[in-house]
Input
Amino acid sequence: DVFYASWDEILVGATAVVSTLGGFGNEEQMKKINGQANVVAVDAAKNY
Output
């Protein structure tokens, strides 16, 4: 789960990160999955 991942453990030693998050649902669900989840992942990745 991108919102509850322990990024410090997952990204150790990473040299590249690729985001393929996306989903369908109502507008709120799509904003959370297609927007917020990608922001969380990118923010975590930029530190590595």
Observations:
- The chain has a mean pLDDT of 83.
- Residues 14 and 35 are 23 Å apart (CA to CA).
- The two ends are 19 Å apart (CA to CA).
